[in-house]
Amino acid sequence: MSGGYGYGDSEPVEECGCCGGLARAEFCDVGVGYAQVSEYRCTQCGASPTTVRDGAGRYVVSWEQPSSPSSLGEVVTGYLIL
Ligand SMILES: [Zn+2]
Predict the structure, then answer these.
(1) What is the tally of structural domains in the chain?
(2) How far apart are CA 13 and CA 82, in angstroms?
(3) How far is the CA of 22 from the centre of ligand 1 (A)?
(4) pTM surpassing 0.85?
(5) Quick one: DSSP state of residue 4?
(6) Which structural domain, as residue segments, surrounds residue 34?
(7) Centre of ligand 1 from the C-alpha of residue 8, in Å
(8) Whole-angstrom Cα distance, residue 17 to residue 64?
(9) Contact at 8 Å (CB) between 50 and 18?
(10) Which residues make up the environment of ion ligand 1, defined by Cβ < 5 Å?
(11) Which of 37, 55, 61, 71 sits at 20 to 30 Å (Cα–Cα) from 29?
(12) First to last CA, the chain
Protein backbone atom coordinates (compact mmCIF):
# COMPACT_ATOMS: atom_id res chain seq x y z
CA MET A 1 0.00 0.00 0.00
CA SER A 2 1.31 3.45 -0.79
CA GLY A 3 0.04 6.92 -0.48
CA GLY A 4 0.90 10.29 0.81
CA TYR A 5 0.13 13.95 0.67
CA GLY A 6 1.87 17.17 -0.19
CA TYR A 7 3.01 20.05 1.94
CA GLY A 8 0.10 22.20 2.96
CA ASP A 9 -2.42 19.40 2.57
CA SER A 10 -4.13 17.93 5.59
CA GLU A 11 -3.20 14.43 6.69
CA PRO A 12 -5.51 11.87 5.07
CA VAL A 13 -7.53 9.73 7.43
CA GLU A 14 -9.85 6.78 6.94
CA GLU A 15 -13.04 5.74 8.66
CA CYS A 16 -12.78 2.44 10.49
CA GLY A 17 -14.94 -0.27 8.99
CA CYS A 18 -15.38 -1.95 12.37
CA CYS A 19 -16.38 0.83 14.75
CA GLY A 20 -16.55 3.93 12.57
CA GLY A 21 -13.68 5.49 14.45
CA LEU A 22 -10.79 7.48 13.07
CA ALA A 23 -8.05 5.47 11.39
CA ARG A 24 -4.66 7.05 10.83
CA ALA A 25 -1.42 5.98 9.18
CA GLU A 26 2.12 7.11 9.78
CA PHE A 27 3.66 9.47 7.26
CA CYS A 28 7.28 10.38 6.71
CA ASP A 29 8.66 13.60 5.25
CA VAL A 30 10.45 12.56 2.05
CA GLY A 31 11.49 15.98 0.81
CA VAL A 32 8.72 16.52 -1.74
CA GLY A 33 5.82 15.76 0.56
CA TYR A 34 4.78 13.07 2.95
CA ALA A 35 4.85 9.37 2.08
CA GLN A 36 2.74 6.79 3.86
CA VAL A 37 4.98 4.43 5.82
CA SER A 38 2.48 2.29 7.70
CA GLU A 39 -0.94 0.79 7.28
CA TYR A 40 -3.98 2.65 8.49
CA ARG A 41 -4.97 1.62 11.98
CA CYS A 42 -8.06 2.57 13.91
CA THR A 43 -7.27 4.77 16.89
CA GLN A 44 -10.28 3.34 18.74
CA CYS A 45 -10.33 -0.43 18.17
CA GLY A 46 -6.99 -1.07 16.46
CA ALA A 47 -8.46 -2.56 13.28
CA SER A 48 -6.52 -2.32 10.02
CA PRO A 49 -7.82 -2.56 6.44
CA THR A 50 -6.81 -5.56 4.39
CA THR A 51 -7.69 -6.26 0.79
CA VAL A 52 -9.53 -9.52 0.24
CA ARG A 53 -11.42 -11.04 -2.68
CA ASP A 54 -15.13 -11.51 -2.31
CA GLY A 55 -17.17 -14.34 -3.79
CA ALA A 56 -17.26 -12.68 -7.19
CA GLY A 57 -13.50 -12.27 -7.34
CA ARG A 58 -13.57 -8.53 -6.75
CA TYR A 59 -11.10 -6.93 -4.43
CA VAL A 60 -12.77 -5.39 -1.42
CA VAL A 61 -11.42 -3.78 1.71
CA SER A 62 -12.06 -5.68 4.92
CA TRP A 63 -11.30 -4.18 8.30
CA GLU A 64 -9.92 -6.71 10.74
CA GLN A 65 -9.05 -6.29 14.37
CA PRO A 66 -5.82 -7.70 15.82
CA SER A 67 -5.85 -10.54 18.30
CA SER A 68 -7.34 -9.56 21.61
CA PRO A 69 -5.24 -7.18 23.70
CA SER A 70 -5.58 -9.40 26.76
CA SER A 71 -3.95 -12.45 25.16
CA LEU A 72 -1.27 -10.28 23.59
CA GLY A 73 -0.60 -8.73 26.99
CA GLU A 74 -0.14 -12.15 28.54
CA VAL A 75 2.50 -13.06 25.98
CA VAL A 76 4.38 -9.79 26.46
CA THR A 77 4.19 -10.09 30.24
CA GLY A 78 5.53 -13.62 30.06
CA TYR A 79 8.59 -12.53 28.13
CA LEU A 80 9.24 -9.71 30.54
CA ILE A 81 9.10 -12.04 33.54
CA LEU A 82 11.44 -14.57 31.92
ZN1 LIG B 1 -12.31 0.83 14.82
Answers:
(1) 1
(2) 39
(3) 7
(4) no
(5) E
(6) 4-81
(7) 27
(8) 8
(9) no
(10) 16, 18-19, 21, 42, 44-45, 47
(11) 61
(12) 37
